[in-house]
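User: Second chain of the day. Same drill as before.
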Amino acid sequence: MSIKKEVEKKVANDKESQTKSTPKETGKSLAPKTIRNIYIVDYYIKDLNSGNVIESNLKENKPMLLATGQKIILEGIGSAFKKVEDKLKESKVGIDFKLTLEPKDAYGIRKSELLRVISSNDFKEHKINPFVGLQINADGRVGTVKTVSGGRVMVDFNSPFADHKIEVYYKLKEYPKGDDKIKAFVTALAQDKLKDTKIEKEKNLVKVTFAKEDQNNTILIALMNATSKYYFESPPKFE
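Assistant: Same format as last time:
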């Protein structure tokens, strides 16, 4: 699932939780008391079933997926496994660690209900020719085509690494602060879809203005404004 989808789901759940548990009081903020962390790390995730490194931001690990540049983790949205986040909370800059994670704490247990049969006509409507191994994205969930038979296509929406034990390595490089924290927040959510062109400070307000050609991405900018309160004592204004 993309970070954008994860954050949208998390924000929706948090809003529902606040509505149920917090009485409506005029003039009082519903912002959480604890500000979540933003981490910049080096890392790798290794599949212990095959011995292959699934992903990393370090070329020397020869990963299946190279996460170029800095790896930024926004606490609480699923951009790292829960046990990794728990360990990072206890960690200090410059310290590294390894964890072995069971399937339930990593990519999950394989579920038969995530095997779905889709009509080949649905693929044709989207001008897609299905073949075994093709990965598709349906409502933010990634699936892999397992079989193609006549007018039926079997798609597996389980992670390819479901039921696999994994090893993770993380080194906490930085807790970004000030403008660097804002830039890290934008980079993590925008995934290069937006560029922060200007950061201005006016008394107690910090305003982040994007390039004109990016300002049409109103959904992503609105997502940043809705989410920033979880990561900043005084949330910036994104526009």
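The first helix runs from residue 3 to 21.

User: Great, on to the next one.
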